[in-house]
Amino acid sequence: MTSALAAVATLLLAAAGQLELGISSWAPLAWVAALALFAFQLRDARARALPVLEPPLATRRRIAALVGVLAVGIFFCVYRLDLIPSGLNHDVAWNGLYALRILRGEPYTPYTAEAWGRETTMLYLQALGIRLFGVEAPALIYPAVVAGILLLPVFYLWLRELFGPRLALAAVKLV
Predict the structure, then answer these.
(1) What is the pTM (predicted TM-score) of this model?
(2) 59: how many CB neighbours lie within 10 A of its CB?
(3) Which terminus of the chain faces fewer neighbouring Cβ atoms within 10 Å, N or C?
């Protein structure tokens, strides 16, 4: 199977699984098949040597640049958090209502079809925020800020693996 055909098949399986999630019993099988096909492609891609398009970046310079970029990212995540966002918008308010339902004993589900459907990881983090800070706006905002900050280095490592350190640093700076 060519890599382009495998990529198209992976996307089609994932899209079909997402479209039918919660409706058809075969949707999880489509997701598992898409994940297996993706893992096969990743293994195949690692076996092929890619040409080096840029000279290597010195480790010290790369680490210093990463620390600087992460510091800027963290700054913009927490800067004026008391004013931005201004109040609770409809998504955060809905998440808060669902988080309260979780605290009242709502059964665990990884996905909810309510409010046009969404995964529930952030809802459980916001329920933890409510448990720690009470029913206040920061309890709903802080978990998203912490998740965003923790995802910055993960995003950098992922992009560095795919495209190299220079493009990864530039992309993390833009996030």
Answers:
(1) 0.62
(2) 9
(3) N
My answer on whether 63 and 38 are in the same domain is no
Most distant CA pair in the chain: distance in Å?
A: 56
Whether residue 121 is found in the same domain as residue 75? yes
| Among 38, 47, 50, CA closest to 12 | 38
Residue the block writes with tokens 């802080």: 142
Kindly give the confidence (pLDDT) of every residue in the chain, 175 residues in length, as a single tens digit, with 9 standing for 90 and above: 577 788 888 888 888 888 887 677 888 888 889 888 888 887 776 666 656 666 677 788 888 888 988 898 889 888 887 776 676 777 888 889 999 999 999 888 888 887 788 888 899 999 999 999 999 888 998 998 999 899 989 988 888 888 888 888 888 876 6
Range of the domain at 102: 56-174
Same domain, 95 and 140: yes
Bond into 28 cis (ω within 30): no
> Do 130 and 67 share a structural domain?
yes
E strands along the chain, which residues? 111-112, 118-119
Alpha carbons 52 and 163: distance in angstroms, whole number: 10
Q: Measuring CA to CA, which residue among 105, 134, 104, 139 is closest to residue 122? A: 139
Tokens (6 digits) for 47: 């076996």
Q: Which residues are CB-neighbours of 132 under 8 A, at least 6 positions away?
A: 139
